[in-house]
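Dear all,

This email documents one entry for the complex benchmark we are building for the journal club exercise. For each entry we list the sequence lines for every component of the assembly. Then comes the predicted three-dimensional structure of the complex as a token string, followed by one or two observations. Please use this as the template for your own entries, and keep the labels exactly as they appear.
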Amino acid sequence: MSTAIKSTSRDRLYDIVNTVVLLVLLLVVAYPLYFVVIASISDPKLVATGRVLFWPQNFSFKGYMEVVNYSPIWTGYRNTLIYTTLFTLISVLVSLLAGYALARKPFPGKTAITAFLLFTMFFNGGLIPTYLLMREIGLYGNPAIIVLLGAVNVTNIIISRTFIKSSIPEELYEAASIDGCSHFSFFFRIVMPVSQALIAVLVLFAAVSQWNSWFNAMIYLNDEAHMPLQMVLRDLIVSQSALSTASNTDSMGGDAAAQIYLVESMRYAVIIVSTLPILCFYPFVQKYFVKGVMIGSVKG
Amino acid sequence: MDTASRTGPKDKKQTKSLGFRIWQSRELYLFLLPAVALVIVFNYFPMYGITVAFKDFKPHLGIMGSPWAGLKYFDRFFDMPMFSVILKNTLLLSFYTLIASFPLPIILALALNSTPSQRLKKIVQTITYAPHFISIVIIVGMLNIFFSPSMGIVRNILSGLGLMDGNLDVLMNASSFPHLYVWSGVWQTLGWSSIIYLGALSAVDPALHESAVIDGASKFQRVFRIDLPLILPTIVILLILESGTIMNIGFEKVFLMQNAFNLSTSEVINTYVYKVGIREAQYSLSSAIGLFNSGINFILILLVNQVSRRLGQESLW
């Protein structure tokens, strides 16, 4: 009797400590995100002087107005939408097709092709040889490189192979092929519909990685008109030198301090604007996260 | 004619003639074609480009036509004063990252797994996974804004509490770079890294917990005597795999965080390759540095994979 009471009070203490740990971690992660949101809709001067900490102060959308009027953002937005759509399509389809082929029973050259693909996971040419090569074959400066470079992710092929192998038995294909079904129609009529969870995960990862990428654009693109959103962002919120030219200098007259506050406010706003699509997606794809990581961790 | 018709089908039956099997699988080759073609162009062609590291590369001669230079550029790299600096910075940042970012996701996963409140669990998961999806550009932008010398929130809070006055100099300070780099990384990856442990925890047999409760084990004991030991294999494997990437510190974040003041701690191998190669156009030298790095990475991955295989766990391939 007494031990039972002791253990429940011990457990209660554990629960309290446990909840405190979770709440602390929650706050530490959430506050910077929350602060960006409230800072973006508060009066720029109050933000810069430290008056905005917990709640928005003197609602102001000046930062957003600056973003709306800054045209490179929208060019970048458009480019990124195009790049992300094409990259995701190519990447997911190529991974699924290859994953399907490798999930089928042995055929001549299967082992060799698998090894050929796997080797690229462990060794690559490196930045400079890749760069020189792209120059030599004329892809330098061509936006196509953004959607093609990195479109084949061998990890995704392996994930697809493992998933398809475990969810679609070879016998099903054999039965279908007796009825005259080709690999091609089997793939589109059976494999694609059955692999929805897999496709969701692949789309999610491909889209996010392309939406957030800037490095290849920095290395391989030379035309401002082709730059993705993240490159515009980099100029706006990372490179200090871009700050002075980022917003329209004559809109504020000669008031230098107000101008600086406004630029700061614009930086908060642009973070929100550029992350919005991901934030909109987030609740819908969240249920696939765990599945995605777990599928990814199972190596064939 | 006669013999052919007699032996033909028999041969096909015995060996299922190679040509026939290839023809039978023709669709599968077609399925693999896009992946193989892209890998050839974007992965294998550049591997051929590695020869630049052993050549005196002249742009007008191309990769093929440039004359061989042997190990000249490797020797030059090892003799450079920067060699030890970037090697040290790379290793320091990697080890620091590994040590700082490893324990917290495990603690988070254990805490999430043992909380009785499903609602709290859901909220914590939603929020802590989110930073994983934020781009590196924005993370570094946020650091720059928060730690801005005269009007960042960190400076404002510290001076509001009377802990400092004047300007905050962490962004222009070489000694604070590693801390900023590592802890912002912990902030970003904490939640996402915990998923794999949560997965391992969900595989723990509830019967173990039930019988432990009957034996009078407290919650604390159950977490540390049942949950933790059962996810230990996962922890060990992830730790081993992580250590295989020790020489491969990500380029993007370090590069974006670099400024003229913190280079003495923030110049790592990958950023140096970029500067020497693309900005200064010393292609052969930077290829040699890059090859040195990817060679070590390759050996490390092989090593790490051997170790995890020895431990009886699944290996990478």
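Observations: Chain A is about 75% helix and 0% strand. Chain A has two domains: 10-69+242-293, 71-224.
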